[in-house]
Amino acid sequence: MRNFKVPLKNPKPDINNFLRGIKGEITPAKPLMCEYLIDDALMRPILVNYLGRTWIEKSEKTEYMGGQMEFTKEDIAIMNKWLDNQIAFWYHMGYDYVRVEVSTPLPAVSLITKDTATGNEDHNRAWQGMDKGPVQTWEDFEKYPWPEVNDDSFYIHNYICNHLPEGMGFISCHAGGVYEHVSRVMGYAGMCIAILENPDLVFAVTDKIGNTIRKYNDGLLQFDRLTAIFQGDDFGFKTGTLISPDDIRKYFIPWHKIYASQAHNAGRIYLLHSCGKIDDIMDDLVYDVKIDGKHSFQDDIMPIGEYRKKWGNSIALLGGVDVHKLSTYSPEDLRKYVRSIIDDCHSQGRFAIGAGNSITSYVPMNNYLTMIDEILK
Q1: CA-to-CA distance for 298 and 131, rounded, in angstroms?
Q2: Which CATH number fits the domain 31-375, given the four candidates 3.20.20.210, 1.10.3720.10, 3.30.1160.10, 1.10.10.10?
Q3: Do 100 and 43 form a contact (C-beta atoms < 8 A)?
Q4: Which residues are CB-contacts of 261 (< 8 A; sequence separation ≥ 6)?
Q5: What would the pLDDT profile of 75-115 be if each residue is shown by its tens digit?
Q6: Calpha distance 306→344 (Å, rounded)
């Protein structure tokens, strides 16, 4: 395998430079880097083979740190070592921040199968089907184990903030946004039917989950080293929004407006990851919610350079490297593609480059390293 600039031996993270670039106060000399999620399948070989660290697998107990569980000293020791690896990875790969997210426990229905990505076959992949979720009626609503936010919900955030290298920031959110969790708790089909037949129940579920995330954000914003809330909420698919734009405005946009205000009132920025073609609600997100940046771009929907023409003067644009191309291009073609995005977007400011969606388990490690190497040129 060829030599790469990363992992860096002596990184110099600068979260203030990152923030000023995202806000448009400066155009940094080199492109900023941004990732939303990086799969363990990529982290593991880099941490073990390049950084000489021991990989830590999370147990079933430590997988879900949602504040509803009792932890033994052994569980905490495992989690601490896992968090140390997270910090080491983001630090040595040249990022200005560590991003880790956690959800409160919100049981729903998921479909699970074995991952087919090379080297990750012993792990599972989960996704949401069309099935109805656990809350379909008012009786279901009353019986559902709605989570509580408490001090235990923030163990990992406290640990990360107390162990960040100098110059690094911490970026987080409640894992899964209000729309995503409503569509899981009710199920996509159940939610769509209820929007037509029982809108009061949809409002009730949305208020329960929306308030949980609001309280969670209150806890997050107590950490001085938290730089931003970088919330994920996938409103779209390839050709449009998953429900009508008017229903998104009715049920979900008001909650994102609350979350953005929470962040802004605490002197932080509010970034949004949302997949799919969501053009019909972009003005709502930019001018009503007042997001500071948008993440998740797919070239066959709209390349990030085209997005810049529409909204680049109002918000930061994050990511942009199409995941299909990141996964399938040759290293030579990938370098040219990454460089073309930098040439198109960097000089205009309010831009950070990385995967258009996330670093998935099926992205070849060599391609991930090639992308970072080209960015750091």
Answers
A1: 27
A2: 3.20.20.210
A3: no
A4: none
A5: 888 889 999 999 999 999 999 999 999 899 898 887 888 88
A6: 10
Per DSSP, the residues of 117-152 read: STT-TTSEEEE--S---S--SHHHHHHS------GG
Quote the tokens at residue 117.
């990505």
Return d(Cα 362, Cα 336) in angstroms, integer.
Answer: 21
Both structure tokens of 320: 């942009």
Count of positions (residues) in the chain: 377
Identity of the residue numbered 141:
F
Strands, DSSP E only, in 83-158? 97-99, 111-114, 124-127
What would the two tokens of residue 310 be?
A: 């529409």
Question: Which two tokens mark 250?
Answer: 């009715």
For residue 260, give the nearest of 233, 292, 226 by alpha carbon. 292
Q: Hey, where are the domains in the chain?
A: 31-375
pLDDT in tens, 181-197: 999 999 999 999 999 99
pLDDT interval class at 74 (50, 70, 90): low
> With left for phi above 0 and alpha for psi between -120 and 50, is residue 31 left, alpha or beta?
beta
Quote the CA–CA distance of 134 and 43 in Å, as a whole number: 34
Cα–Cα distance, 269 to 265 (Å, whole number): 9
Residues with Cβ within 8 Å of 197's Cβ and at least 6 positions away in sequence, in order, are none
Q: Which residues contact 121 (CB under 8 A, 6 or more apart)?
A: 114, 115
For β-strands 169-172 and 226-232, DSSP reports them as parallel
Q: Are β-strands 111-114 and 124-127 bridged in parallel, bridged antiparallel, or unpaired? A: antiparallel
Mark out the alpha helices in 135-294 (DSSP H runs). 138-143, 155-163, 178-185, 188-197, 199-220, 245-251, 253-265, 279-283
Place of tokens 């000089």: 347
**pLDDT tier at 68, thresholds 50, 70, 90:** very low
CB 250 within 8 A of CB 204: no
